Amino acid sequence: MAYSEKVIDHYSDPRNVGSLDKSDENVGTGLVGAPECGDVMKLQIQVDPETEEIVDAKFKTFGCGSAIASSSLATEWVKGKSIDDAMSIQNTEIVEELSLPPVKIHCSVLAEDAIKAAISDYKKRNKD
Amino acid sequence: MALEELSCQKCESLLISRLFCFSCDAFQPFPSEIDYFQAMGLPIGFEINYEDLEERYQRLSLVMHPDFFESASEADKHLSEKASVMLNTAYNTLRESTSRARYLLFLFAKGKNLNDKTLPEGLLKEMFFLQESLDELLESGDVSALSKMNEDLRGRYKDIESYYAPLFKKFEGSPEDSEILQQLQTHLNVERYLRRLLDRIPMND
Prior knowledge:
The complex is a heterodimer. By secondary structure, chain A is an alpha+beta fold. Chain A has one domain (5-123): Sufe protein. Chain: A (Alpha-Beta Complex), CATH 3.90.1010.10. Chain A is 44% helix and 22% strand. In chain A, helix 1 crosses helix 2 (65-78) and helix 4 crosses helix 5. Chain B is mainly α. Helices cover 60% and strands 2% of the residues of chain B. A two-stranded antiparallel ribbon of chain B has the order 1-2. The radius of gyration of chain B is 21 Å and the shape is elongated. The mean pLDDT of chain B is 92. Classes of the chains: A alpha+beta, B mainly alpha. The interface between A and B is medium-sized, with 13 and 16 residues.
């Protein structure tokens, strides 16, 4: 299967790879997996508690090119967004941007799930 | 062994495979719904005799292979291609225990509403941790630590494989119990994560 140019770009030059400090209360961590293929994806966001804006995002994905590209793109997209706006990112937007074929749609779902998991982790830790 | 109540549409002899009749040397009309067990002429179930499977595969490929139908009618040519593809897929799926278990679960789970994403508590975290550790080991080139990890993972993989047979047997005894299928699904999900790790270790090539 041929990867699209954008997938290859993100895959060969992934953005925002790495980790944020898990103990920082302004950091939310999402860890998700796809049992269809055994991919695991960790996506973290750093939130400014005053503005609820995502000021930084990092990811680490063990998976295929499409999964890496989807999460790399997801970190680019969430940066600078409010957590509410980031929450509304749809996997279909990722599919479109990266021209993912049907067999790789679950990679984009994984990235959407990772964003949502990171945000809900942040919210859970900052309930009060 | 013949398939239950399946006979050749031409000569009415009992069929060994739903694809071909050995008595009159004729292809059967290609079934609209056929499972891999029927293609091989085997009863649906996890337990399989590998020698028998191999023999059936050899025997069926010998009569159905497209090479023998180059001067045959268009219809038979077409059937030979279709049947051979089916036979190869069936053989490759059934000969390996994990793909056979996955396929059987797919057959049994139809209409049962299983959750196909279930994982044991904490497994995802552990798999992520193992992937990161594997990164480090691969980078450091520490062969003995790597082979230790490989052995551990292979051990766990074998454990997973050993759950298939007893669970399918249990399911045979109580085919209404979806919980057994759900357990199988969970094991097969874990299998994918372990496979992913094992595939990254060069000594498994």
